[in-house]
Design brief:
The structure holds three protein chains of three kinds. Chain B is mostly helical. Chain B is built from 14 helices and no strands. Chain C has a domain at 249-350.
């Protein structure tokens, strides 16, 4: 793949959260001795990929797989515990908030919950003006005003409502305003974290169309986080499948949906309910999803995989590139038995 | 401005206020009391601070409707011959001043500490909250005794009367700030994980801006609710301190010190010196609490969402 | 022989500070023994209210203002509280989106199942415990003996929903009302739960009313389907017929708005605007402001369900054009939606 086109590049990124609480909670009595134990959630484990300029890169996985954490780590909202993150060729994971500022105007984010992502005490105008004034303190009031009107128009919210508060809008309209806020600073990269999951089907279609139009008009690059595979199929260029904080498979969208290679991807795709299908047909997995606190040894998926063998239980599979361009981390695929 | 007024007119706050008779009556009484207190020099028949207007011969006159009463003094006079009505109005003014002053101080300290503890979290949070615990485990009476003792040693008793008001504000303000700090901290912790705060971080705003511009305005409702109750508490604290002789001096009596000064004479038959300021204090505190209850019902979303 | 469930012209109103709101307006359908029906609509369409109205659990300020719910021939909304309690949780069970609505966090799963049984059956504790164990096996919970003594928080989300299904089945109900049972779950778990629900209903001849926003799930599991919009049923009939050949413009729009139907990357079909809130339901057909086929009559006269091609549709235009509305092309540019929901907001916040 052409390395020059990579806008965002993650190398072996790790993010763990310490949830052990205060010192007193950490101390336990074990075999007659006091020991201090920390509990860490291994949310993102050794993930590497590149997001190419102009594409829609989707990250899919089930709840708790670390996809939201991955997105927030990638754009520097959480400091990574390991690995390197490059944006436009520059390393950004160790920057101070001040050094990060120029990137903040280039990277924006859209959130899942339209009811929580807008400050309830600010009017739409205040919400939209804030990023502009913050990044261009010298901006003229009239220009900012015009820009607010233009962006509101573009996302399909009547600019006359700029003086209203978020609670006066419906969920779909709030999501439009949230998108407008991201567009205000003219970013080049937008991370969308489940932007349509909280919306009804008919509104979801409106917002997806809006996102696609905005991408065309502004030449945006998207990193799209979702659990909804039909949405992924519709809008993505490439898809990364995450399981328990580990990258299982990364492929072009068409390739992934036609020929999924990883057993987990296969199970995930088979479980999508299909319109007009009678009965529920899907690849059954065994067992339950382990917690990200105690990760299984070897391949994180081995406990649920129908094809796991001794090697899967002990040895972590590495991501390898197949001829089709698909990258997959599975011993079975590597050995040719899947 | 006009839009704000329109919004207020159609708001749920006003709607529920107009449906709640208790709230409306309390509000009317409270406004009346506050206006009377603030306009004390204009509305009270006499100036109780002016020794020249006081005649010791008029001391302990009963209320006007009793046989020995005088038409000049509606609710009678106290031991020094001061008109009870005027003294109570001036006393009310002092109580309001000290109550609001103390609450402002509490709120300033409490909001500052609560915001920092809640937003930064971790060790800072633990430290500040333990500090609040320690503060709350000191009875305010003890703090008051300490501070006034130190004060009297440092400045002499003579200046105590002059500086009693700011002193009481500081004492009551310092002893109750943890109430604010805890409430603010709790709502900051609730707010800081919401996506709009994350959105502000994506924009690149620093911690101070996020705290002040985004989180603080969303904790204001809880500040409002506890403020009413805290004003009532501060007025009561002041009255209690004054009653114990640690508060306002008799020359500049607040409601509490009036009650105290009358208490000595209640068994000799001069009940009015204690009872009337007592009733006024009870009414004042009661209406504030009733309003506070109403406000909490209206502003606390959990109540109507959970019902 | 009676229908298992017959809902006749059901209307539910909410008495609020600014007047009365009609939450559902003249909803009617029938369900036979062992039949599975989907009740589909977007949020606010009134599908959950319908579910609650069936078991007479509309809480104040709502009330059933018109119509009847007949369960095995008995009018449920005229029964005494006692008689209703005997049916609810016994002959009719409910499954909610959030398992914790059904499960009591401080009681073990076993206790809750046994209590449910003892409330409705005159049997011994031992017998009840045995039935509970059977049902846990039936919902394929591994090592059920051990699981009986555990508390709800010791289960994962999918397992909890299985427990809820086991509790719903424990009294061998004739009807299960499942309100968005898998919406909070991941797709792989959703598939497991849906398969389970389908198999159990088939095996036990249990009727199912599946309330959901997900047409695909409904098409997998149910035989009948009713599509709701703004408190009314706009189309009902056999699931296959409606899913493959929707007649009502709203149903058409809903199906065509799904990603995965058209070429990836192209614009999705979108229904302009938003569903009206209950406070501002437009006169005539509630869908007319969003409808591409809207004519003068739609703005004034509410349509009624009428048979069209082996299903029922409430649409003037479908009725006059003899059941064939050719869907318009994919809408390439969207219309800014210009209607506010300011009035509707008060309902959402203060109505409950």
């Amino acid at each position: 793949m052409d390395a020059e086109k990579a806008l965002l590049s993650l190398r072996n990124v790790v993010k763990h959260f310490d949830i052990s609480g205060g010192l007193l909670d950490q101390i336990q009595f074990e075999k007659g001795r006091l020991v201090r134990r920390r509990t860490t959630v291994k949310a993102v484990n050794d993930i590497s990929f590149q997001v190419l300029t102009g594409e829609t890169f989707s990250v899919v996985g089930e709840s708790g797989c670390g996809k939201s954490t991955l997105a927030r780590t990638a754009i520097g909202l959480y400091p990574p515990d390991g690995g390197k993150i490059y944006y436009d060729g520059q390393r950004i994971d160790h920057l101070s908030p001040g050094q990060m500022l120029p990137y903040r105007a280039r990277i924006q984010m859209i959130f899942q919950d339209p009811y929580a992502s807008l400050n309830p005490r600010k009017t739409v105008r205040q919400t939209l003006e804030e990023p502009v004034y913050f990044h261009q303190p010298s901006a003229k009031a009239a220009e900012v005003r015009d820009r607010v009107a233009a962006v509101m128009e573009q996302v399909g919210v009547d600019p006359q409502w700029a003086g209203r508060y978020p609670h006066e809008f419906s969920g779909g309209q709030r999501q439009r305003i949230s998108i407008a806020r991201a567009l205000m600073v003219d970013p080049e990269f937008v991370v969308a974290d489940e932007p349509v999951s909280a919306l009804d089907v008919s509104i979801q279609a409106q917002i997806l169309n809006l996102l696609m139009s905005a991408q065309e008009e502004h030449g945006l690059t998207y990193m799209f986080i979702t659990h909804d595979l039909s949405v992924v199929r519709h809008i993505s260029t490439r898809v990364a499948v995450l399981y328990l904080g580990t990258l299982c498979e990364l492929a072009a969208t068409g390739e992934l949906f036609q020929a999924p290679r990883h057993p987990y991807t296969q199970a995930l795709l088979s479980a999508i309910p299909k319109l007009g299908q009678h009965g529920v047909h899907y690849v059954k997995l065994k067992g339950e999803v382990p917690t990200p606190i105690d990760l299984p040894s070897g391949c994180v998926f081995h406990g649920r995989c129908l094809f796991a063998d001794e090697r899967c239980r002990h040895e972590k599979p590495a991501l390898m590139r197949l001829q089709s361009g698909t990258q997959v981390a599975c011993h079975g695929v590597e050995e040719g038995r899947l | 401005m006009k839009a704000t007024w329109q919004r207020f007119k159609s708001s749920y706050l006003l709607y529920s206020f107009r449906r709640d008779k208790v709230a409306m009556a309390s509000f009317a009484v409270l406004v009346l009391l506050i206006l009377t207190g603030l306009a004390a020099p204009l509305v009270s028949p006499y100036n109780p601070y002016d020794p020249s207007s006081i005649d010791i011969m008029n001391s302990e006159l009963p209320p006007a409707w009793q046989d020995a009463g005088s038409r000049a003094f509606l609710l009678g006079t106290d031991v020094q011959g001061r008109d009870m009505v005027s003294t109570m109005i001036y006393g009310l003014r002092l109580s309001i001043l000290i109550g609001c002053g103390a609450v402002t101080l509490q709120a300033l300290i409490g909001i500052f500490i609560g915001l920092i503890a809640g937003y930064i979290g971790g060790k800072v949070d633990a430290l500040l909250m333990r500090l609040a615990d320690i503060q709350l485990s000191f009875p305010y009476l003890m703090v008051a005794i300490f501070i006034s003792a130190i004060f009297q040693v440092a400045f002499g008793i003579g200046r105590y009367a002059e500086l009693a008001v700011p002193l009481l504000i500081v004492i009551i303000g310092l002893s109750e700030w943890p109430v604010y700090a805890r409430t603010i901290r709790a709502s900051v912790i609730g707010e800081k994980n919401k996506e709009y705060v994350e959105a502000a971080r994506v924009i690149g705003l620093n911690r101070r801006l996020i705290m002040v511009r985004h989180i603080l305005p969303n904790t204001i409702t809880s500040v409002l609710v506890i403020s009413t109750i805290q004003v009532a508490n501060a007025v009561m604290s002041e009255a209690a301190l004054s009653f114990l002789g640690l508060g306002m001096p008799v020359t500049k009596p607040s409601l509490g010190s009036l009650i105290r000064s009358g208490f000595e004479y209640i068994f000799s038959g001069s009940w009015w010196i204690t009872i009337f300021p007592g009733i006024l204090l009870v009414i004042f505190v009661l209406v504030i609490n009733l309003l506070g209850d109403w406000l909490r019902d209206v502003l606390n979303p959990k109540l109507y969402k959970g019902a | 022989m009676h229908h298992l469930l017959e809902v006749q012209d059901l209307e539910v109103k909410f008495a609020l500070r600014f007047g009365e709101l009609t939450a559902i307006n003249g909803v009617g359908f029938t369900l036979e023994r062992g039949e599975r029906m989907g009740l589909v609509g977007e949020s606010g369409a009134g599908k959950s209210v319908t579910g609650f109205a069936i078991i007479n659990l509309i809480s104040k300020p709502g009330y059933i203002s018109r119509g009847r719910v007949l369960f095995e021939g008995r009018a449920l909304n005229q029964l005494s509280h006692e008689a209703m309690r005997d049916i609810r949780g016994n002959r009719i069970s409910m499954i909610f989106q959030d398992p914790m609505m059904t499960l009591n966090p401080v009681l073990t799963v076993g206790t809750q199942m046994v209590e449910t049984l003892l409330a409705h059956r005159r049997i011994s504790r031992q017998a009840a415990a045995k039935i509970a164990l059977d049902k846990l096996r039936m919902v394929q919970i591994p090592s059920p003996e051990k699981r009986l003594t555990q508390y709800p928080h010791e289960f994962s989300g999918g397992m909890r929903q299985r427990i809820v299904i086991a509790i719903a089945l424990v009294t061998d109900p004739a009807l299960i009302i499942a309100d968005e049972p898998t919406t909070a779950l991941d797709v792989t778990i959703q598939a497991e739960i849906m398969e389970l629900l389908l198999e159990l209903c088939q095996a036990q001849k249990t009727g199912l009313v599946l309330i959901t926003h997900d047409l695909a799930v409904v098409s997998q599991v149910t035989e009948k389907l009713a599509v709701m919009y703004a408190g009314s049923i706009v189309e009902k009939g056999a699931t296959d017929v409606i899913v493959n050949d929707p007649a009502h413009p709203y149903t058409q729009g809903l199906i065509r708005a799904l990603p995965g139907i058209i070429t990836p990357g192209s614009r999705l079909h979108q229904i302009p605007g938003v569903m009206p809130s209950l406070t501002s339901i437009p006169p005539g057909c509630p869908f007319h402001p969003r409808c591409p086929f809207c004519a003068a009559v739609c703005r004034t006269t509410p349509p009624h369900l009428a048979p069209v091609d082996s299903r029922q549709v409430a649409c003037h235009m479908v009725a006059t054009q003899n059941g064939r509305l050719e869907p318009t092309g994919i809408v390439e540019t969207w219309q800014p939606d210009t209607r506010m929901t300011a009035t509707g907001k008060a309902v959402e916040t203060h109505g409950r």
